[in-house]
Specification:
70 residues, mainly alpha, 2 helices, 34% helix, 0% strand
Length: 70
């Protein structure tokens, strides 16, 4: 399994296609490497981001995330 760093976008960079371009390149590289899937973590209340991911063909998966803040 490979893990990418956390990437966030400044408000002024949103809706400019930056994420779509980044995602397209990550997807291209993942397919070339024969990766089984791509996963993104998103805040549960971030409906806008979730809609973007769904428009790109991603679907909500069956995993729940747990965290312990230290």
């Amino acid at each position: 399994d490979a893990c990418a760093p956390v990437v966030t976008f400044a408000a002024q960079a949103r809706r400019d296609g930056v994420f779509r371009a980044l995602y397209a390149e990550v997807e291209r590289r993942a397919r070339a490497a024969k990766a089984a899937s791509l996963r993104l973590y998103v805040e549960t209340e971030n409906a806008r981001a979730q809609a973007t991911y769904e428009r790109l063909g991603m679907r909500r998966c069956h995993y729940a995330m747990y965290e312990q803040v230290l």
